[in-house]
Design a protein that fits this description.
406 residues; mainly beta; five-stranded mixed β-sheet
Length: 406
């Protein structure tokens, strides 16, 4: 159902979806929206609370019809910060170090055809990119090439192309172990659309090392080296899968013998979409993507207590300030950064999670038209730059860079 809705949205967008980069640096500068503080509830035309707009680049700059996922990379050699923006027809790379002059460096075109779904993660100095485009596989791109761009925007080539699967909805990487987990592949493949395990410790030579199929199709996941309160699993590699109608917890330390630990259900399941651990790995925050549209909830975040991984429990349900659909959410410290489609990003204070004292502390709404439960606006958010910059991938409007108001 989700795919149908987003496909309809994308079909209505009339911007060119050419995969070339036929736009010069002056055109980029002309289309850039620079700093606008959040004052009296707005930053430029965008509703806000506590977050300033630093910069914006529209989809027209990228010659794309739609945006989707976003991730970030910090070059530890130069200390420059980069946004990696998924597009329907490829992946864009933007230097956001100087937000008064952000630089669109170029695009890596899609490996096969255009698609509304693309997902990116970073390991070491490489980006790993999957898409639901037919036979796309996994592109590997050496991010250090961004240091050498002299004639932006360039059209890049992948440094490796892994074809051990065709289409995929998402990719997850455990930074500590150097394994990628590709999920949402074809439902009839070797792992039934579950997780493909790929060794990426040598990034340009990815190697298949098994997979997990016991609970069927996995839409999204998080994989961690476990440091949480359950001593039985300390130091193990734990997979948390959002599997459409259940949450799956599995021990994937032994890639040839993954073991299910538990499955989790909750009231009013519509489409189990994506979740993220709190930093101490006691609580897991989950979004169901269709409960707002189908059941009329305000944006609903389900909070599970994973103190005992063998016996996880639904601990609390947080209802947001709008009726918008929740999408991808990430935890940084005591804040939960939630991509909330038409309601923009919502920043939720989880410092009082143990006492169920959870409140919205701020927001930035990239889709000012309305907050209805439909598939427009923010796809994803990346809040992990040490500088405090936050980058947003918006389906309709491209790239936003924001920051907490001082």
């Amino acid at each position: 159902m989700k795919k149908l809705f987003i496909a309809l949205v994308v079909s209505l967008i009339t911007l060119s979806c050419s995969s070339d980069n036929s736009i010069d640096s002056q055109e980029v500068a002309d289309n850039q929206l620079n700093f606008s503080p959040c004052e009296n509830g707005f930053a430029d035309i965008y509703p806000c609370n506590g977050y300033d707009l630093l910069a914006k680049l529209p989809l027209s700059v990228f010659n794309a019809a739609a945006g989707n996922d976003i991730w970030g990379w910090t070059d530890t050699t130069t200390n420059k910060e980069y946004a990696i923006l998924g597009l329907d027809n490829g992946t864009a790379f933007v230097d956001i170090t100087d937000t008064e002059n952000i630089l669109y460096l170029g695009k890596l075109p899609t490996a096969t055809s255009a698609s509304s779904w693309r997902d990116i993660k970073v390991y070491q100095n490489f980006a790993f990119i999957v898409s639901e485009a037919s036979n796309h596989g996994m592109q590997v791109f050496d991010l250090t090439k961004l240091r050498e761009v002299t004639n932006a925007p360039e059209t890049f080539s992948a440094d490796a192309h892994y074809t051990g699967f065709g289409n995929a909805h998402n990719i997850v990487i455990n930074q500590e172990t150097g394994f990628a987990y590709v999920v949402g592949t074809a439902r009839g493949d070797a792992f039934l659309g579950g997780a493909h395990f790929i060794n990426i410790q040598d990034p340009t030579n990815p190697t298949a090392v098994g997979g997990y199929a016991d609970n069927g199709y996995t839409h999204d996941a998080q994989v961690v080296t476990y440091i949480g309160p359950d001593a039985d699993y300390f130091g193990r590699e734990i997979f948390i899968g959002a599997n459409e109608d259940q949450v799956v917890i599995a021990d994937v330390t032994d890639k040839l013998n993954p073991v299910e630990i538990a499955t989790v259900f909750y009231p009013n399941i519509q489409y189990t979409h994506q979740g993220w651990f709190t930093e101490e790995q006691q609580y897991f925050l989950l979004g169901d993507e269709l409960d707002e549209a189908n059941l009329g909830f305000s944006s609903r975040t389900l909070i599970f207590d994973f103190t005992d991984l063998d016996n996880p429990e639904l601990f609390h349900t947080y209802l947001g300030e709008t009726s918008a659909i929740d999408h991808n959410g990430y935890v940084k410290g005591n804040s939960f950064f939630l991509a909330n489609y038409t309601a923009g990003i919502r920043v939720i204070d989880i410092s009082g999670i143990e006492t169920k004292n959870i409140t919205e502390e701020g927001f930035f709404d990239t889709f000012p038209s309305h907050d209805n439960a439909d598939f427009n606006g923010v796809w994803s958010v990346y809040p992990y730059f040490e500088s405090g910059k936050i980058i947003i991938g918006d389906i309709n409007s491209g790239l936003f860079v924001i920051e907490k108001s001082s």
